[in-house]
Amino acid sequence: MKDAAPVVFVVDDDAAVRESVGKLIASVGLRSQTFASTQEFLASKRPEAPACLVLDVRLPDMSGLEFQRQLAEADIRIPIIFITGYGDIPMTVRAMKAGAVEFLTKPFRGQELLDAVQEAIARDRAAWNQRARLAELTARHQSLTAREKEVMSLVVLGLLNKQIAAELGTSELTIKTHRGRVMEKMGADSVADLVRMSETLKSTTPNRSQAPDP
């Protein structure tokens, strides 16, 4: 991460709310960026850092719930804390089912918002770390030659060197050499470690044979 210090984005069309939330966030040593609309937020250059979004439900350009859906569709992954003066149970349920961290009804206690912000930032920090780990694994896997990838795929199935050699039509010594290079390039200390890496890579690869959800 270029900017490791977390940031709290605040989107609310009420200037007084933006100011008060911004001051509250600053009181615990966190930085914030405030916006009067979702369009302002989208047009801004956001720092590469763990973050969360404090979002009003009722906004002039679109509802906060609609914006939550649009962010998800655009693959902009950021934990959301909703604030509203007009909340109801169906609205809360919809927001939480879509992944919101919290749904606070105005007036809310400052500590409630701060607790939600800390939870949201912790979630996003974990997600950043996971994405960084995946990017590193992907880069390592891409550094393998085509034959090394074949060997890796058979190693994680539990095949022995002589079995892999027979499968690929080459010598056991050649497979041993390829296997050593795979372990080195992937940074794996054991076969079990290599299996975990393979499963992580598979879990992030979309299954193109499946139809998209409606």
* Strand and helix order: EHEHEHEHEHHHHH
Summarize model confidence as the mean pLDDT. Answer: 90
User: Shape from CA axes?
Assistant: elongated
Compute the gyration radius: what is it?
A: 24 Å
Computed structural class: alpha/beta
**First-last Cα distance:** 35 Å
| Total DSSP helices | 9
The proportion of residues forming helix, as a percent range, comes to 40-55%
How is this fold's topology laid out?
Elements: E1 7-11, H1 15-26, E2 31-35, H2 38-43, E3 51-56, H3 64-73, E4 80-84, H4 89-97, E5 102-105, H5 110-142, H6 146-155, H7 161-168, H8 172-186, H9 191-203
Parallel strand pairs: 1-2, 1-3, 3-4, 4-5
Helix pairs in contact: 6-8, 7-8
Fold and architecture overview:
- With 214 residues, this protein is an alpha/beta fold.
- It has 2 domains: 7-129, Rossmann fold; 143-203, Winged helix-like DNA-binding domain superfamily/Winged helix DNA-binding domain (Arc Repressor Mutant, subunit A, Orthogonal Bundle).
- Helices cover 54% and strands 12% of the residues.
- It contains 9 helices and 5 strands, in the order βαβαβαβαβααααα.
- It has helices at residues 15-26, 38-43, 64-73, 89-97, 110-142, 146-155, 161-168, 172-186, 191-203, and strands at 7-11, 31-35, 51-56, 80-84, 102-105.
- It has a 5-stranded parallel beta sheet, with helices on both faces.
- Strand 3, helix 3 (64-73) and strand 4 form a beta-alpha-beta unit.
- Helix 6 (146-155) packs across helix 8.
- The longest helix has 33 residues, at 110-142.
- It is elongated and about 75 Å long.
- Mean pLDDT is 90; it is low at 206-214.
